[in-house]
């Protein structure tokens, strides 16, 4: 979804994209122990996840999951794995290039991907999609920008904000890069969201 208030600003809201939902689903289902990172949100806010396989993990799994996640959310990720032009793409996964150099993670992704698609379909049938859950006015985005313009006494300077919504049990808005954020759905539906958004718009308007 996009909210182009004028030629000078644009806000993009992305929700329920497989390339962000699946890694979090895999992390939770496989109980992956991920190294601390300011880019990693809390667990998915769902109650119908499949049970963990209960198998011992390769000690590289957590670091590889984090490298994969960073390659997804960052514009210019820094991979801990040295480049290797001879590595075969992971064609058995939904991310052949992103997983090509992650040998511990790759088989988990390949095995769980079909299961994730089935789970996602059943979950949406039972609980709806973000379209069903989203707040009236999509978090008052346009209204907040107009309020800031009124405070400034002018139209907002050109800016572009991107919010990737995640259905997670977390109240933190994670800054990925300037103008790009990971936002828990529970936050954009909360009473405090307009105040946070207003402060961000003031910075860039």
Task: Outline the secondary-structure elements.
Blueprint: E1 2-6, E2 9-15, H1 18-29, H2 61-73, H3 106-127, H4 130-133, H5 141-152, E3 159-166, E4 174-177, E5 180-184, H6 185-188, H7 193-204
Parallel strand pairs: 2-3, 3-5
Antiparallel strand pairs: 1-2, 4-5
Helix pairs in contact: 1-2, 1-3, 5-7
Key features of this structure:
alpha/beta; Zincin-like; 5-stranded mixed sheet; 205 residues
What would a concise description of this structure say?
The protein contains seven helices and five strands. The protein is of the alpha/beta class and 205 residues long.
Count of helical regions: 7
Q: Care to count the β-strands?
A: 5
| Helical/strand content category | alpha/beta
Q: Tell me, what's the shape? A: globular
Strand content: 5-15%
The span between the termini is 20 Å
Spatial ordering of strands, largest sheet: 1-2-3-5-4
User: What is the number of domains?
Assistant: 2
Sheet having the most strands: 5 strands, mixed
For the CA atoms, what is the radius of gyration? 19 Å
H/E series:
EEHHHHHEEEHH
Q: Approximately how much helix is present in the residues?
A: 25-40%
> Overall pLDDT, averaged?
88
Unreliable stretches (pLDDT < 50, length at least 5) are none
């Amino acid at each position: 979804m996009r909210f182009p208030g004028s030629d000078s600003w644009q806000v993009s809201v992305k929700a329920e994209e497989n390339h962000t939902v699946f890694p979090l689903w895999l992390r939770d289902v496989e109980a992956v122990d991920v190294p601390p990172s300011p880019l990693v949100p809390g667990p998915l806010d769902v109650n119908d996840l499949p049970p963990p396989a209960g198998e011992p993990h390769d000690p590289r799994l957590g670091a590889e999951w984090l490298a994969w996640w960073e390659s997804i959310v960052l514009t210019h990720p820094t991979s801990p794995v040295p480049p290797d032009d001879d590595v075969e793409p992971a064609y058995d996964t939904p991310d052949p290039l992103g997983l090509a150099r992650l040998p511990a993670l790759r088989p988990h992704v390949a095995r769980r991907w079909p299961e994730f698609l089935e789970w996602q379909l059943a979950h949406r049938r039972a609980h709806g999609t973000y379209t069903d859950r989203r707040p009236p006015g999509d978090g008052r985005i346009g209204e907040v920008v107009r309020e800031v313009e009124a405070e400034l006494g002018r139209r907002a300077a050109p800016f572009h904000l991107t919010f990737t919504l995640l259905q997670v049990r977390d109240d933190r808005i994670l800054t990925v890069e300037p103008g790009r954020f990971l936002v828990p759905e529970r936050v954009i539906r909360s009473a405090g969201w307009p105040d946070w958004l207003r402060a961000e718009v003031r910075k860039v308007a």
